[in-house]
Design brief:
By secondary structure, the protein is an all-alpha fold. It has a domain of 198 residues. The chain is 89% helix and 0% strand. Helix 3 packs antiparallel against helix 5, helix 6 runs antiparallel to helix 7 and helix 9 packs antiparallel against helix 10. The protein is globular. The two termini are 18 Å apart.
C-alpha cells in the first residue's frame, strides 16, 4: 500500500503560506508571469491565423504592414518580459521556501537577486522541454494541409507530451534552483525523480487537482459574498442621490479597487500555497 504524507504536506504548505506573507508578492508575480507565459502561444496564433492562410504567408503579410508588424513585435516583447518575470519570481519563491525550511531568512532583496541569477537556467530548461512541441506543432500544421490522420495523431501526441512534462516540470525547476545545476541536468533529474516515484507523484498531482478545484470554489464564494455588499452600497447611493455621476463613479471605482485587491491577495496566497505544496512533494520524493 502506498504511504505518502499528503496530509502533513498540505498542513505544512498552509502554515508556511500563512506565516510568510512577504512571499505573497513573489506568488503574485508567479501568477502574473505564468498567465502570460501559458497564453503566449495563443497570442502568436492570433497573428499567425489572422488571414486564414499558412503561417509563412501570414508572416509575409504581417511584416508587409508596418502597424501589424509593430503590433506583433510589441506583443512578443511584452510576453517575453512577463516570461522573464515568471522565472525570476519562481526562482526567488523557491529559494524563499528553502529558507523557511532551513530556518534562514534572507532579505527580500537577496531573494530577488538570487532569482535573477537563475532566470537564464530556468528559461533554458523550458526551452529544452518545449523543443518537441515545435516538431509536433509543425506536424499539426502539415497534417492540417496534407493528412487528416497526421493532424489528429500530432494533436494527440502534443497533448500527451505536454501532460507528461507537466508531471515533472516543477521537480526540474526545484532541482535547478536548489542544486544550481545546469538546465539539462535539472530536466533529467526531474524526469528520473518522477519515474522512480511515479505512483506517489501521480497521487500528489491528483490531490493538487482536488485542492485547486476546492480552493477555486471557496474563492468564488468569497468573491460573491464580498460583491453583494459592494453592489448594495452602490445601489443605496443611487437610490439616495439619484444619477449623481461623480458620486456613483467614485463609489464604483472604490468597489472595483477593493475587489481587485481581494483577488490579488487571494491569488498571491494561492500561488504560494501550491508552489509550497509541490515543492514539499519534491523534497519528500527526494528522501
Amino acid at each position: 500500500m502506498l504511504k505518502f504524507p499528503i496530509g502533513a504536506i498540505i498542513k505544512t504548505a498552509w502554515r508556511w503560506t500563512r506565516e510568510n506573507m512577504r512571499l505573497w508578492w513573489l506568488g503574485f508575480f508567479v501568477t502574473l508571469g505564468g498567465f502570460f507565459m501559458f497564453n503566449l502561444q495563443d497570442w502568436v496564433n492570433y497573428f499567425m491565423n489572422a488571414t486564414g492562410k499558412s503561417i509563412w504567408i501570414n508572416l509575409v503579410l504581417i511584416f508587409s504592414s508596418a502597424p501589424d508588424a509593430a503590433q506583433l513585435i510589441v506583443t512578443i516583447l511584452v510576453m517575453v518580459l512577463f516570461l522573464l518575470v515568471f522565472f525570476w519570481a519562481k526562482a526567488a519563491l523557491l529559494q524563499g521556501l528553502l529558507d523557511v525550511k532551513s530556518g534562514d531568512r534572507q532579505s527580500f532583496k537577496q531573494l530577488l537577486r538570487f532569482g535573477w541569477h537563475r532566470v537564464a537556467q530556468l528559461l533554458l530548461l523550458e526551452v529544452f522541454l518545449s523543443l518537441p512541441n515545435i516538431v509536433l506543432l509543425t506536424l499539426v500544421g502539415l497534417g492540417f494541409y496534407f493528412s487528416t490522420i497526421l493532424f489528429f495523431v500530432a494533436i494527440i501526441l502534443f497533448f500527451l507530451y505536454n501532460g507528461f512534462i507537466f508531471l515533472f516540470r516543477h521537480f526540474a525547476y526545484c532541482d535547478s534552483v536548489f542544486t544550481q545545476t545546469t538546465a539539462w541536468a535539472a530536466v533529467k533529474s526531474g524526469y528520473k525523480l518522477f519515474i522512480a516515484n511515479w505512483r506517489a507523484a501521480l497521487l500528489s498531482w491528483l490531490v493538487f487537482a482536488g485542492l485547486a478545484f476546492g480552493i477555486g470554489f471557496i474563492t468564488l464564494i468569497a468573491l460573491v459574498l464580498l460583491l453583494i455588499p459592494l453592489v448594495f452600497i452602490v445601489l443605496t447611493l443611487f437610490l439616495a442621490f439619484g444619477m449623481n455621476y461623480i458620486l456613483l463613479t467614485v463609489a464604483t471605482i472604490i468597489c472595483l479597487v477593493i475587489l481587485l485587491c481581494f483577488l490579488i491577495c487571494c491569488q498571491a496566497a494561492i500561488s504560494v500555497f501550491f508552489v509550497s505544496y509541490t515543492t514539499q512533494v519534491y523534497w519528500e520524493l527526494k528522501k
